[in-house]
Amino acid sequence: MKILKIRFENIHSLKGEHEVDFADGILADAGLFAITGPTGSGKSTLLDVITLALYNRIARVDKNVSNAILEDDGGIMTRNMTSCYAEVEYRVNGKNYRSHWSIARNRNNNLNARKQELVVVATGEILESGTKTPDKNQEVIGLSYSQFVKAMVLSQGEFSKLLQAPRNERNKLLEDITGAKSYREIGRAVYLRFKGIEKQIELKEASLEGIELLSEEAISEKKETLKTLTKNKPETEKAFQTASEKIKVRQELQQRQTEEKQLKTTKEALEKDLTDFKPYKRELEQHEKLSKYNVNLRDYDLAIKEVGQYDTEYNSLIKSKDEAQKLQQSYLGAVAKLLKENVTIKTANEKLDAFRSKITTLQAEEKKKQSEASLFQGQVSKEVGKINQLGYNLSIAEHPKQFKTQVQSFTNSLVDTIENSGADSFEQLNSQLEVVRNSNEIAAQLLTKKEQLVKNQAQLKTYQDKLQAEKKSLEEDTKAIADLDKKVSTLKKEVETLEKTLEQQRKHLRLEEYRLQLEPEQPCPLCGSKHHPYATEEPYFDAKEELLKEKKESLDRSAKHLITLNQKNKFQVKEIDSSSANIESLRAEESQTLDLLKALANELKWDHTEDLESLKTHRIALNQQILNLEKSKQAFQADSILKDLNESLKQWENAMDAFNSLNKERVALYDGQDINEKTNVLSSRLTRSVANLSSLAKQQENIEEKLKEAKSVKTKKEENLKEILIKEKFENLQGLRKAIISEGRAGKIRKRENELKERKTRLSEKETVLEKTLKQLTEKDDGLVSFEVLTSSAEETKKKWLELLENITIINERLEADTKLRERQQVVINQLSLLKKDRALWKSMNDLIGDATGNKFSNFVQDLTLEQLIGFANKRLSEFSDRYLLDIPTADEAEKSDTLKIFDKYMGNARRSVRTLSGGETFLVSLAMAFALSDIAAKNVKIKSLFIDEGFGTLDPETLDQAITILEKMQNEGDKSVGVISHVSALKERITTQVKLEKGSLGYSTLAVVN
Predict the structure, then answer these.
(1) Cβ–Cβ < 8 Å for 930, 173
(2) What pLDDT does 53 receive?
(3) Which own/partner pairs from 606-614 qualify as long-range (CB within 8 Å, at least 24 positions apart)?
(4) CB 379 within 8 A of CB 648
(5) Higher model confidence: residue 36 or residue 413?
(6) Which of 543, 663, 672, 1005 is 20 to 30 A distant from 518 in Cα terms?
(7) What is the structure's pLDDT at 584?
């Protein structure tokens, strides 16, 4: 998989559209390139563009990018922008694909849904669009987001920590690097599951102890008692029912006797109510006889009301007519005031039309002249704009006469400027300006060369001082190397002598057993001597173990120091050569710059030996001369514009004079704005007043007719009612009205009459039923026994019955409870059995991989991962250097130090901790491990694009050179594109092909591909 090209717009600090082509141009030719720039300039943004376009993810946010993240976090889209996009082209298995991601704000400033699609570049076929595009990219590439980042973005700084960390910390780092945190969670989950099951078993066992069951004897006893009680139940129940029935009959008989007394009282009350109702009944009968005259009374009342209404309406019309006549006179007065002459209702409208026509004509003339004045004023304003574009500040006045004064003053100043320029024509002035500008450009080149010369001389002095210091340091180190050579040689001889002496002493000590076998006057089996001085006493040896150890340590330190000094010497020789070359280059550059400086100074007739500030002063004088000439040039141009300006100003002034004259004439007649509206309103009011008075006169005649007719109807109704009063023998109309009661009162009387009838019927029925019931109850009741005796007997039988029922219930409940407890006990036993089986399984699992922190399983898995990682790392390390091999500490070594170990082939395969490696060696080993993780993460996918982040800042120049050589070798052998993200100056000098990012003043950055 290889990244070919990225395109993006408004991502992070990189505002606007940008494109980086890795497959064509200088990046493709170089293969190895650096991504450089200060902190915060956007180096990591290029990686964000790739992952955003492919997976909708970036490293700074640990989840898919959503609208909420864009809004809340304020990242990804450049500040103050309304849209952004990221696009990447890549190649997999010889086929090119383009993945696009974009988002934009709508007119309400809300984010629309993101757009994402995957396209085959050759055919334009859309493989996927929408939210499923990241999944399709994963399918095509063969890597998930996590695998992609680990395989293509190598952050070897994490592996530097990994190399020297103890086991638990190392495995935690390895978890973070590989993303394999689930194993720790599994180990913790197993432990928690095991402990949870143990807790459940404890609870179940405790619940079993709390279950109390009946014994078999107690169960048999309770069942026998229950059998006896059940047998006696019918007899006891029957006795209780008999006694209860007797009580019930006696109580009902007493109740009915009481009801009989109450019924008698109720009958007496009914008779009284019937007597009291008789007057009301007579009132109702009279009402029903006379109610037919209600219609006559209502018609008479309506006739009276209608006469009153017409009379009121007639009086109101008389009043309205008077008011309308007054209003018409006020309208005529308003017309007379407007026209400044008297008018009548007949002549008013005609005179208003004539006045309106005259005013309208004057207003039209006014408007025409005003438009002409505005047109000429616009032409004046246009000419003023042309003048102001030349750099002047001529402001147009509100009135032409005021502006005329300003123009005259401006014209005088232009004449002075043209005269002071000394030029007779515009062409002559242009020629002078061209000469001075040419001199100014030469002066700019001269200043640049002068600044370059000053900078060159400063650099030359710096390199000369550096060369002197390096030569002095080399001389001191060379002398120190000679001294160390002598010291190392001497120490080697001393160590060899001491080792031989100690070896001889150890041999003597090993002959202890043989010395004990020596006998006096008997020859020694080895030497044949009969004299044995050490047969009975041990020989004395001056043991020098500690001295030997000290000498060896001193020799080791001196040898290491000697190696370091030799390496430093080599580096210093290179640095001296480099400084000498730089000095020669700077001297050549100084000479070339000085020649150019002299040539430019001669052309300007300046002295090149003057200091930089003096030369800048000469340049400022040239700039001032250009400004003065430019000002004169503007005066010539403005003067030509003034001719057109004066002509337009004259026309503007004439148009304004005509407008003012017409305005004065019109205002003398009418000082308002809309004459049409004014005359139309007055005309409409007069017309409406005439129509209104005519309408009121007609209404008056109509109402007079209706009033006459209503009075006639009233008289007829009144005669009819007088005949009814005679017929029904009433003295007056009030008597008839009083006899006809309201229908509401009549309804209440009828309702009361019906209620009394119903009460009488119900009492009669109740009396019949009560007599029959009393007869039946008397026959059933035992009158010889008192109520107290009956009650006492019933209470006793009830008590026996309730006691029997209670005893049966208690025994049944206890037996049922025991049965349920036995069932519950069995359930708990079954659950406990299953839990114990579960516990056995999870105990085995816990013993193998479980613990509270999850370290046990995580360490096991990460140890396997580390073995695999070290295997791949050693393959990579062998490509970098043939000196080292990584290894995992043994159990014995782990007790002392469980950091990773290293085999040093240059030191006889000596095995030591990685902590003993230098900074440069640690970098190379961690870089090999970073490549190894890339190999593991990529699996079967061939990775042809790599980005290496961090780590180069800790390297010395020689190791940095070695690391870059390794990367170049890797790029050339595998046809890979390798990008190194760094801000190390030496790296920028070594890798000349760069994607360069620079921070701007407003927080935005710029991007350029340079070589």
Answers:
(1) no
(2) 94
(3) 606/443, 606/446, 608/446, 608/450, 612/447, 612/450, 612/451, 612/454
(4) yes
(5) 36
(6) 543
(7) 86
